[in-house]
Amino acid sequence: MNYSVNPIESDHVNLVSSERVLVAVGTNKTPKILLMDDSALARKIGRIAVQSAGYPDVTEAAGGQEALNILSAADCDIDVVLCDLMMPEMDGVQFLRHAAELPRRPALVFVSGGEAALLQGARDTAQARHFNVLGTIQKPLTAEAIGRLLGRFGKPEHKAKDAKTSEIVQDLERGIAERQFILHYQPKISVTGHKLVGVESLVRWQHPDHGLLPPGAFIDEAEKSGRIGALTEQIVTLALKQCAMWSIDGFTPKVSVNLSAYMLVDLDFPDRIANKAESLGVKAQQIVLEVTESGLFQDLANTLDILTRLRMKGFTLSIDDFGTGYSSMEQLRRVPFAELKIDRAFVHGAADNEKARAILDSTVQLGRSLNMTVVAEGAETQQDWDILEDAGVDLVQGYFVAKPMPDDAVPGWAESWKVAHVGS
User: Fold this and answer.
1) Rounded distance, CA 158 to CA 130, Å?
2) DSSP calls for 301-358
3) 373 bridge partner residues
């Protein structure tokens, strides 16, 4: 049988995502599956595949409405829906629309015998509706395909939303006051010379009770609750101090820091960060400030004021997740960006996705025509690297190069990379 599996990678995280879904801590409980398909034969084959993969608790639905009825029941504890896209009564995209109104949303796996573009469109639609999409599978279902996807699944906790939000906010205040946040760093490597050029700092919360938490677990609430300013100040200070410490040892990569768009209304921010850098002996040119495209211009005048002054003080400005917002060209025209970061959605798997490849190539050409450094994030495979090299990208970051790592691991990793890829 022929099949393909496209898991959703969720390891890339940053400090700027007001619309990203809260990441919940997983459990080891075997997930309960809802298999939705209008074909009785497909359901029979699917049930065998799912149970053979080690997931015995399977419920079946012959259509979208039946699935909605099951999911809306008060005692429903379905964790994952295997959703057939092409159903006559209610197709998979219509099902998404209605399922988005459910008080508890299951994770999704899309299944179809149709073209890959349809699966991609359904996946993007589901993510836009804030579903956790584990991946897509071309029919027929197999135990191996199911195992590869569901093995990535962690069941969310289910606490009352208001109580949980209040708890997170209180924890955030305590975490900021007690300086519980740390940074990990992901290398940026030049495509032509294979040299370490910079690192992106990625925030982690060293929570006293829950351990090391990724930004998806707290950034959204930090922004909503108004704590993002204090948190960003702490993150920037940590990055500047680390940059200063590395410089003492002669290790001088550029350090990128994610800036929340919510900071782009604070007119004193450019002066504070410049003064802090000067006091630590860090040159502004060593720091790259990444701003997510979709978060720009909530307050046009103040945003332009702040970003222009940051650039005047010598900081490099980077437009992050380029291509995912709604006014990309206008952002480039208005703001003195020097770096353009191509979103991972147009990088990983671009070799097998003509539309993603076309967007990748045109974005690289645009960046070059504007004399910008072009960075591609989310490179996961040799195939990704080869495509990026062929497209003419300047810098690459992603799991193919290295995962984010603690500060004390970066110099040693850089030396090992140099010996292996550049020569001593």
Assistant:
1) 16
2) HHHHHHHHHHHHTT-EEEEEEETSSS-HHHHHHHS---EEEE-GGGTTTGGG-HHHHH
3) 339
SS3 136: strand
Rounded to an integer, what distance in angstroms lies between the CA atom of residue 102 and that of residue 72? 7
Interatomic CA distance for residues 23 and 19, integer angstroms: 12
Q: Which of 331, 335, 280 is nearest to 306 (CA)?
A: 335
Task: Report residue 98 as tokens.
Answer: 């209605």
pLDDT tens digits along 260-304 = 877 787 889 999 999 999 999 999 999 999 987 655 555 677 888
Read off the pLDDT of residues 114-144 as tens digits, 9 standing for 90 and up. 777 777 778 888 888 888 888 888 777 888 8
3 state SS of 213: strand
Rounded Cα–Cα distance for residues 185 and 408 (Å): 10
* pTM of the complete model beyond 0.85: no
**Which is it for the CA torsion 270, 335, 190, 344, positive or negative?**
positive
Residues 67/98, Cβ–Cβ less than 8 Å: no
Question: Which tokens sit at 236?
Answer: 């920037």
* Contact (CB, 8 A) for 396 and 376: yes
Which domains, and CATH codes, for the chain? Answer: 26-150 (3.40.50.2300), 161-422 (3.20.20.450)
Q: Residue 381: count other Cβ atoms within 10 Å of its Cβ.
A: 14
DSSP letter at 261?
G
- Which of 267, 293, 288, 292 lies closest to 277 in space, CA to CA? 288
Q: Which parts of 191-282 are beta strand (E)?
A: 196-207, 211-213, 254-259
